[in-house]
Each structure stands twice: as C-alpha cells, then as structure tokens.
Amino acid sequence: VLFLFCIFQMDTTQESYLDLFPLDAIVYLTPDSENALEDIDPNKVYVLGGLVDESIHKKLTLQRAQEQSLQTARLPIREYMVKTVNTKNYHSETLAINQVFDVLSTYYETRSWPAALKAGVSSGKGYVLPDAVK
Fold first, then answer.
1. Are 123 and 85 within 8 A, CB to CB?
2. Which of 32, 62, 117, 134 sits 20 to 30 Å CA-CA off 80?
3. Residue 17 C-beta-side C-alpha neighbours within 13 Å
C-alpha cells in the first residue's frame, strides 16, 4: 500500500509509485544511500523505505531503489549530528517510518536540519546534535 503524504491530507492506493510518478521525480529515502538529502524539493516525490529488522535486511531499500533506477538520498544525520558514547556502542541511522516523517515534516516547516533531526532522531540511536554533547 502506498501512502501519499501531503501537508493536510493522506491518500492511500494499491498502485505502485512507479506507475503514479515519473522516475526522475522519485527520490527513495534509504539510510544506505551515499547522498545526503540537502533540501526538500516540492516537485519531487519522496519514498520512505521501511523495514522491520535492519540487521537482517541490510541495504535492501538501497538495492530496491537501484533496481528501479531511482535517485536515492538519506537524512543528513552524519552531517549535523555526532555519535555519542553509550554502553552498547550502538549507532544507527536507520529510523522508523514515523521518525523519518517527523524529520521531514519538521524540516519542511523550519528549514532547519538540526531542529528536524532533534525532533525525529531519538538519543537511543546513538546520535545527538553537537551542542548536546557535554
């Protein structure tokens, strides 16, 4: 099921995003992309790649996007956040779909990646904004 998010409405359809939009308008968001998302283009369609267990399906969303000849991007976590010391030495840029949506909607409203990442990336992921490091 494809969910199309707009600022005030959400539509669902059984159709594939590949059938609904031109390939050059689609950006597949995956934490495995080499391309950091710099800005949200209102003329693009952003597909949120979602998986339940990142350890089993490593790079699956990136492979899917590449097989479909789609542009890819990742949230700019590395560019705006720093790794924190934690007991499990755990650091992950893989977020749940609701967290990615929170980041994107906050960025759209504020045009600030630090504010957006703070809103959507929990400290349990092992990343914080540099000003949060003591």
1. no
2. 62
3. 23
41 is catalytic: no
Supply 112's token pair: 């600030």
Tokens of 91: 């650091």
Residues 6+ apart with CB under 8 A from 19: none
Global confidence as pTM: 0.83
**Percent helix, strand and coil across the chain, each rounded to 5?**
35, 20, 45
Q: What is the DSSP string of 43-89?
A: TSEEEE---S-TTTSTTHHHHHHHHTT-EEEB--HHHH-EE---TT-
Helix, strand, or coil (residue 132): helix
Per-residue pLDDT of the chain (134 residues; tens, 9 = 90+): 444 444 445 677 888 889 999 999 999 999 899 999 999 998 998 888 665 445 556 788 889 899 999 999 999 999 999 988 877 778 888 888 889 989 999 999 999 999 999 999 988 888 899 987 65
Q: Which residue is catalytic, options 39, 53, 102, 131? A: 53
